[in-house]
Amino acid sequence: MNRRTFLRISGAVPVAGLAGGPPGDEWERLRRKLAGPLFRPGDPGYPEAKQGYFTMYDHRMPAAVVGATRVEDVQAAVAFAARHDLPIAARSGGHSYPGYSTVDAGIVVDLSRFSGVAVRPDGRAVIGAGALLGPIATTLAAAGRVLPAGSCDTVGIAGLALGGGVGVLDRKYGLTCDHLEAARIVTADARVRTVSAAAEPDLFWALRGGGGGNFGIVTGFTFATVPIADVATFDLHFPVGTQAALFAAWQEWQPAMPDELWSGMGLGDDHANLGGTFLGPESRMNELLDDLIRRVGTPPAEQRRRVTDHLSAMGSFDDRDSRPGAVVNRAAYVGTSRMLTRPAEDPAAVVDVLIRDPGVDTIIDSGGGAIARVGVRETPFPHRKALASFQFLHGAEPADGGEAEARRSLALVRDGLGPEFGTTGYVNYLDPEMPDWPVAYYGVNLPRLRAVARRYDPRGIFAFPQGLSAPHSTVHKGSS
Hints:
Keywords: FAD, Flavoprotein, Oxidoreductase. Its cofactor is FAD. It comes from Amycolatopsis heterodermiae. The structure is a single chain. The protein is an alpha+beta fold. The protein has 15 helices and 18 strands. A hairpin with a 5-residue loop joins strand 8 (180-186) and strand 9. Helix 9 (243-253) packs across helix 10 (282-296) and helix 9 crosses helix 12 (347-355).
C-alpha cells in the first residue's frame, strides 16, 4: 500500500487526488524530457487537451496532459506518475463511458499522435494506439484489406482491441483481438516491451480482451488483416408494436444463419429496426431475410437492401460525418450492457423491460460464428458462446435528467432482465455501477488476469475503480 492509497482509505484527501502534488520544478523537469507537449492548468491549449469524447466529464482537472509523440514520452510520464504517486490514464479515442481516460489530479497520456497506419506486403497492419477506426479502415481499404472492428469512425483502436472488439464482420472473421499478433506496451516499471505469443505470452494473452488500462500503456499494435470484398447490406424498419415479435423471431433465426451474415437490432419504445451485412450474393441475402420476415409475421414498413463497397457499408452503420476535415461532435450519454447467453424463454417480457423507459435505447449485436469457435480461455474475452451483446444507452444532457438520472434508468433495464443474461457485461461498455463487475466482464478468466496484473503492476500504478491491478475500492485512477 503506497502513501496515496493510505490517504485515500483514511479519508485524508478527496477522490480527486492529493492536495498540492509535485512542485513546479518537477513538472518543468518532466517537460524538458518530452518531445511532445505538456499541458498544465493555465497553459494555452489545456482546456482542449484534457477533453475526452463525453462532455459530462469536462469538470475533471488532470494535473497534466502529456501529448506523447514517441514511446520515450510515455515512459517518462509513467516513471513520473510512479515516483509521485499520481494517477495516470491513457487516452486514445477518449470514448470511456465512465470517463476513466480523463483523470482528476493526475496525468493523462494522450496517444492521439500515435496515429500511424502502415500495411505490410503480407497484409499485416502496424497501427499506432492513437489511430481511430475511420482512418484505419480507409488506409486498409486502399491496400485491399480490412481489419474486423467496430463501425464508429471516432472510436480508438486501442480501447476497442484491448477489450475484445465487436463489429459487423466478427461472425465471419472473429473479434478484433483475435487478429492481434503483437503489441508494444510500456509497463509500470516504465519498460518498453514488445509482446506476442512467443514473447511474454501471459501479458500478450491479457491484452487480447483483458480491458484497456489494466496492464500498462500500449503504444502500437500489429494485426493480421483479411482481404476486402464487396458487402451486401440491409436495413429493415418494422412497425411500432412488433418489437416483441421481431426479437422472438430473431433470437431463433440469427443463430441458424451462415457466418457470413451479421445483424444488429435496435429496439426502443418507438422503433424496431434490423440492419446488417452479408458477405455473399445479394440474392442469397434476400432469401435469408425473407425467412426472417415470415417468422416475424409482419412485413417491414421500410427496407433497404443493396451491394456496396466495404467503406460505404461501414458508413451506413455510423451516423457521424466522417469526411476529411469534418468536426467531430462530442456527446453526453451513458451506457451499460448484458450478454444474451441463450434464447429468452419469454421474449415479450424481455422486450417489455427494454422499451418501458422511452429514454433507453437498446442496440443488439449478434454473436456466434467465428467468435464462438475460439475457446473461452484462449483469450480473456469470456463471452464466446453468447448469442448476442446488448448495449443500453441513455442521454445524459441536463434535459435528460443528467448522468445520475440516466444511470438510474439504465440500472432498471440492466438488472430487470431474466436469467438468460446472468452476471454478464462487455468491458468496452464499462458501467461504474455494474453489480459484480469483475465476474460480469471477465468470467472464468478473472483469476488469471489478476495474476498478470499483479506481476506487471505490483504497486497498482495503473489502478482505477474498475481496474485489475489493485483493489477497486481503494484507488481512483484512469484507464484507456
